[in-house]
Amino acid sequence: LGSVKQEDISCCVVTRVIGHYPHRKQLLIDCGFNGLTKQGMGQLPTGCCAFRGHPNLKLSASTQEIGFVESVEGQHLDLNQYPIGSLLYILPWHSCATAALYPLYHVVEGDKVVEEWVPTRGW
């Protein structure tokens, strides 16, 4: 939304590369709109999110459980850089809407989970 710098975004969704489509120049990830809202789709050159550390990636489409990732317009996508099973970290367009989709949050420092938070539900 532009309310904070990218390095200050405290919410991210971890996803895994589950497929390569060389003929379509796409990666397949195991995160669709059930794990990341479509809010903001088309508002960024990278779709409705940004991939932490990978400014060349764009979420081009998603189904309920699957996301389709391509390179940002005009950039080459080297599928060898994203082996099957590798992790990607998604910074959502709207972290509040995305966080509401999850029953548990992992608080991470470096590569270590230091706490688990259970969000309050209901009004």
Automatic annotation (TrEMBL):
GO terms for molecular function: D-serine ammonia-lyase activity. Residues 10-109 form the D-serine dehydratase-like domain. It holds the Pfam family D-ser_dehydrat. This is D-serine dehydratase-like domain-containing protein. One of its GO terms (biological process) is D-serine catabolic process.
